[in-house]
Amino acid sequence: MIRYTIEQLTSQPEGQTFDRKSIRIAPKDLAVIMVAFANADGGTIAIGIADDGKLEGIDKHPQQVIELLRVPFDYCQPTVKVKPERISFENNEGKADHILLMHVVQSQKAHANQKDEVYYRVGDKSKKLTFDERFVTKAEYPEFVWKELIINAITHRDYSILGTDIQIKMFDDRITVESPGNLPSIVRLDNMRHVHFSRNPLIAQFLKAHKFVREFGEGVDRMYRESHEAGNPEPKYEQVAFMILGTAYSLLYSKESGSDRQLGDNFKKNVTENRLLLIIEEMKKNTSITTTDLARIFHVRRRTIHRDIDLLKQQGLLTRIGPDKGGCWQVNEQKEQHEHNI
Question: Which of 60, 102, 120, 202 has its CB 3.0 to 4.6 Å from that of 45, i.e. a possible disulfide?
Answer without folding.
Answer: 102
